[in-house]
Amino acid sequence: MLRQFIVFAAVVFNCFAARVELNWDVGYVFGIRDGFTYRRAIGVNGELPFPPVHVTQGDTLVINVHNSLDVPTSIHAHGLLNNGTNYYDGPDMVTQCGIPPGESFTYVLETKNQFGTFWIHGHTRHQEVDGLHTPLIIHSRKQPVVDYDEELIMTFEDWFTTEFAVRQAYIDSLEDIRTLTSNFPKALINGYDGNKTAPIKFVPGKKYRLRVICMSINNWFKFRIPGHTMTLIEADGVESMPLEVDGLSMGPGQRYSVIVTAHDSDEFNYMYNVTSYSDALVSQGLTPMVYTGLINYRDGAPVKTIQSPADEQLVWPEETAIQVLDKQAELPVDRRIELTMKKFTYTNQEHLTTLGTTLYKPVLVPTLYTALSMGDLAANSSVYGPQTNAYVLKHLDVVEVVINNPERVDHTFHFHGHNVQVIETGPYGNSSTISREPVAHQQSGPWPMWRDTVQVRGFEFIRVRFRADNPGVWFMHCHLSWHEYNGVAVVFIEAPDVLQKQQSVPEEMVEMCKRQGIPTQGNGAGNQGFDLSGLPPAIYPISVESAN
Q1: Beta strand pairing status for 192-193 and 238-245?
Q2: Angle 361-366-372 (CA atoms, 0-180°, nearest 5)?
Q3: pLDDT higher than threshold 90 for residue 12
Q4: CB within 8 A of 290, min separation 6: which ones?
Q5: Per-residue CA distances from 163 to 50, 130, 193, 481 (Å)
Q6: What percentage of the chain carries pLDDT values higher than 90?
Q7: Residues 280, 177: contact at Cβ < 8 Å?
Q8: How far apart, in whole angstroms, are the C-alpha atoms of residue 154 and residue 168?
Q9: What share of the chain has pLDDT > 70, as a percent?
């Protein structure tokens, strides 16, 4: 009887699933987003910001992308697991070749059992930095954790006065990022100048679900509505046990859903507070920047002034404090991978931060295509090239990843293809030159939260776990754009033997590579066996530098 019920439920679920199709023309747009600077950016169908994407759990999302840029492009649905369709994940030269200028490609994204708050962004040449991003909301078919009347989307972005390529060339010219004294980003709230964002309308007595998305690429954001309490119910597309917090502290790529109950009276309006900051630039006096906006109960009502306590006295959602709703216990560990942030001087005389000793650099063949075409050798990390930073994982192993950060700079790390259990955070390393509050040791409760993007604060470590149940090639990288650009990333080659039996790259993707002269078979250099001739010379560390 139980099996019959499960089959019946699956049939009913599939009957309601829809195919949602969008046409995106990715191209350049011009405008002033921050209230100051007219500049070129990247939008969709001539718009920036362009509309959020709404689908329902179980739907198939089809995005027909036409590239009107003068360089390749690709998109990534941040947080979507793409189980069985690794080739639609999006990162250029990891799972695909970029879409060439003037050409089109169709992404077929299956939501399956996922629902919650996500976003879609560019994943070629850091085009998300220049505007190629929008919210992706997957509405659940089941009863929410906490009932609510309406939902609203809140997005936070950092917006620079110049395009990514121009700014990165400037950063590359600096001996030390800490000497950066100009070009600090302004904040955008809901796509526009943070000081001019439209008011948020509250109706007395109603409950609102705020889907809050940090679409920044450098800055952290804190969000509060003084005089109101937030109940957190979701992190990164995973339902959590309800947790009361005073506000949200979010790093690049992270998302939360909170329930906010409006007051019963419309006697007063209120102000929300958004603080944008970056620990990388704290010594220059450029951060933090504070923005406010109106919570409008009634047009013309006076704004109630509320004295806010210091941040240290408020409750923020710590990674380990959030508990998953479905009460999954800690997974037992089969394999442990420890990655430590280190700053080295390399053989090319660059001074760069890495995970371990290897800077990630793209190779000549998309890494997924190597995993699919190298037979038994796909289980040997050497065939992917010396700077792919590849880790080969066994099917269904539980992998524990420890990320150590002895630097003062905060990071977020995004796991493609997986949510991870947040097990533990604590102090790591120390500074003789930087004064800051010591990091506390925090162990997760009995049901650790699952999420796809985790914070690793300065002088902190984090311990996370996931089960290798999604055969494919999955990028794991710092979501600060300049760190990803510099190679703070690894690639998990997950169950290549199973992958070869279950998946094959669509022919149109293979042809798209061939038209650009990109090999689609062989090792990282496009050769057979361990012959990696043709790859750019690898760079290696020659001395370690102080992380402070």
Answers
A1: unpaired
A2: 130
A3: no
A4: 273, 274, 275, 276
A5: 18, 6, 17, 12
A6: 80
A7: yes
A8: 28
A9: 93
Closest by Cα among 405, 480, 415 to 454: 415
Kindly list the distances between the CA atom of residue 147 and the CA atoms of 233, 455, 459, in Å, as whole numbers in the listed order: 11, 29, 39
DSSP run (H or E) holding 508 = helix 507-514
Distance CA 177, CA 168 (A): 11
CA dihedral 415, 538, 384, 480 (to 10 degrees): 10
Buried b (16+ CB within 10 A) or exposed e, 234-261: bbbbbbbbebebbbbbbbbbbbbbbbbb
pLDDT surpassing 80 at residue 389: yes
Mean pLDDT of 161-181: 76
| Separation CA 293–CA 194 (nearest Å) | 8
Contacts of 115 (CB under 8 A, 6+ apart): 56, 57, 138, 139, 140, 141, 237
Contacts of range 527-534, beta carbons closer than 8 Å, 24 or more positions apart: 529/377, 529/383, 530/377, 530/382, 530/383, 532/385, 532/386, 534/364
Give pLDDT tens digits for 130-162: 999 999 999 999 999 999 999 999 999 999 999
| Residue 317 · residue 241 · CB < 8 Å | no
Query: Which string of b and e fits 438-470 if b means at least 16 CB within 10 Å?
Result: ebeeeebeebbbbbbbbbbbbbbbbbbbbbbbb
**Residue 515 CB coordination number (10 Å):** 11
Lowest model confidence (mean pLDDT) among 321-330, 350-359, 456-465: 350-359
Among 9, 28, 25, which residue's Cα sits nearest to residue 17? 9
E strands within 430-502?
Answer: 442-443, 450-451, 453-456, 460-467, 472-478, 489-494
Which 8-state DSSP code applies to residue 482?
Answer: H
Q: Name which of 58, 54, 61, 64 is nearest 19 in CA terms.
A: 61
Which residue reads 């800055």 in tokens? 219
Q: What is the mean pLDDT of the chain?
A: 92
Number of Cβ within a 10 Å radius of residue 310: 6
Contact call for residues 422 and 464 (beta carbons, < 8 A): yes
Residues whose CB falls within 8 Å of the CB of residue 547, separated by 6 or more in sequence, listed in order: 341, 342, 343, 353, 406, 407, 408, 429
The pLDDT value recorded for residue 16 is: 75
47 DSSP 8-state letter: B
d(CA 244, CA 255): 16
Pairing of strands 411-415, 453-456: antiparallel
Q: Within 10 Å of residue 193's Cβ, how many Cβ atoms?
A: 17
Peptide bond between residue 52 and the one before it cis (omega within 30 degrees of 0): no
Residue 375 DSSP one-character state: G
Cα distance between the two ends of the chain: 63
pLDDT for residue 179 is more than 70: no
| The pTM of the whole model exceeds 0.90 | yes
